[in-house]
Amino acid sequence: MFMVFGGIKAQDVKDTLTITLEQAIEIALSDNPTIKVAEEEIVLKKTANKEAYAALFPEASLVGSYSRAIKKQKVSMDMGGESATFEMGRTNSYNGGLSINLPLFAPAIYKGINLTKTDVELAVEKARSSKMDMVNQVTKAYFQLLLMQDSYEVWKKSYAQYVANYEVASAKYEHGVVSEYDKIRAEVQMRNAMPSVVSARNGVNLANLMLKVLMGIDEEEIAVVGSLKDYELTMFQQQLDDYPIDLRGNSDLKQLALNAEMLRQNVKVQQTNFMPTLAASFNYSYISMNEDFKFSKYEWFPYSTLALNLSIPLFKASNFTKLKQAKIQMSQLDNSRINAERQLQMQATNYKNNMDASTEQVVSNKASIIQAEKGRDIAQKRYEVGRGTIIELNDSEVALTQSQLVYHQSIYDYLAAKADLDLVLGYEYVRK
User: Fold this and answer.
1) Tell me: the pLDDT tens digits for 30-45?
2) How many of the other CB atoms lie within 10 Å of CB of 127?
């Protein structure tokens, strides 16, 4: 039996996997089902592309048929001035052989191959988008867990201080130095802090579970390295770098571009409905016609044919409507791309502004913590010597707790905004 975090106990003895952010991302990219599905989709599209090429190869099949004449066809012929009527064929007819077909000129197949190539590129881009989105989610979940742990530590220390304040007030009350009000006030403040401690502990549990889900881990327990304070210097260093808003790497825009290319290819496919097609066919068959079912006495006669089949479309109304629909879809997609680019530009600008604001808040909050600690120390000394009140002491602890929580929240806000900005700009995670 051991504790992963304060107050979190496992039912069975399990090994704890201590991970860094990079390790969490690596595990998620390897084990998360969403990434595996995206990779399988690429394989599926490549197989479809091979299928399109396969249409250019000849098709060979064995064919056979049997027919029984219910009423035979009759023909009338002039025989020396007299009309004679004859029945044609036999009751049972058998036909079997080999059939081979080969497209010689098939514009729809050629354009379909180009369409499947673009479809493969789209599947690759979707897989890249899934990976970047997974990196974004894991990064924010990792930092969320750090935030919950830091907040839990702040609340534990604050609760410990409230307990100490209560013990001091209780001792002074026993010696008649302070009134019972001070003791009651200190006890109420101590008990009011406990729900926040429990809530912070539950927040750690939930954040830990969320990170495990994203990483694809079921049984093994995990623990993260460090705290948000470790990223403060990195945060200021990143702010010195210029982050130009360049959306050329954005996956959504790339997918829209590939969808537009697929629509252009689809228009070309629809245009092939107005073009002729040419195919070659070869048949080699055996035929037998008989009046009975004495198969051993049947005579089979071979015959073969080689043919060229030319089809020239003259008029089909649906071809015109399908072509018009494809062109309308291209126009719709172009308008959607313009709107998406504006939205992404706004998002990227907003994330940059949030990063700037969080940096300023961290500087202010850090100074606020120093002042709050100093105020708390002064309030403690004043209360110990009987010149301060329990209200002043409690207020100083509340101010310190609030400053510490806001400080950690500001760092998290910066890191989350940075992760979202990287996603919008299309920055890919580089494995080390």
Assistant:
1) 877 888 888 888 888 8
2) 19
